[in-house]
Specification:
By secondary structure, the protein is α+β, with helices and mostly antiparallel strands. Helix content is 16%, strand content 47%.
Length: 175
């Protein structure tokens, strides 16, 4: 059994308990994945971040996100699911927010964290992620209850927009 298969099996057990935050957080913090084990899912683009699916079922999904230098994901929501993001390579800045009001849109930044390999954030509700280095970064994400679209919070325009999500690769094969 590969390490990735082991991770999937353990997350299936956590799914039976509705992903207990303390247990999942502890497990992901202690997880020892080598770059070689994630190489199959390390598919990059130079001009945008890529979402590379490792596993998805009705309870959870796991993916590797590859971040080109100085790129970011906008402020976005996780629809009430539990979301963990772990920095595997590089350096990411994760900003967590709370919604103060929806009309007009007002968010309050409650946390700004810079993380290097081994850093774990989560579970997150509304956040942004940014590669703050001049090198590629990668992060491992675990989402309970996968979904295919999410809300993007545009503070400048004071609106929330729903966008459809897609994968750059599935099980190591570029789409």
């Amino acid at each position: 059994m590969t390490m990735i298969e082991s991770v999937i099996n353990i997350l299936k057990e956590f799914a039976k308990e509705d992903f207990p935050v303390t247990k999942v957080t502890s497990y992901l913090l202690d997880l020892d994945l080598s770059r070689g084990e994630l190489k199959k899912y390390d598919h990059r683009a130079d001009d945008h971040y890529t979402r590379n699916l490792i596993h998805r079922d009705v309870d959870f999904e796991i993916m590797v996100i590859c971040w080109p230098p100085n790129t970011s994901a906008p402020i976005h929501g996780h629809e009430g699911e539990k979301c963990w993001a772990r920095v595997e390579t590089g350096q990411l800045r994760i900003c967590n927010y709370e919604e103060v009001s929806s009309k007009p849109l007002k968010l309050n930044k409650i946390q700004e964290l810079d993380g290097s390999p081994g850093f774990l954030d989560g579970p997150a509700d509304i956040h942004s992620v940014e590669n703050i280095s001049n090198n590629f970064a990668t992060s491992l994400h675990v989402y309970s209850r996968p979904y295919d679209s999410c809300d993007i919070y545009d503070i400048d325009r004071a609106i929330v927009e729903r966008i459809k999500l897609s994968y750059h690769s599935i099980d190591g094969i570029v789409c």
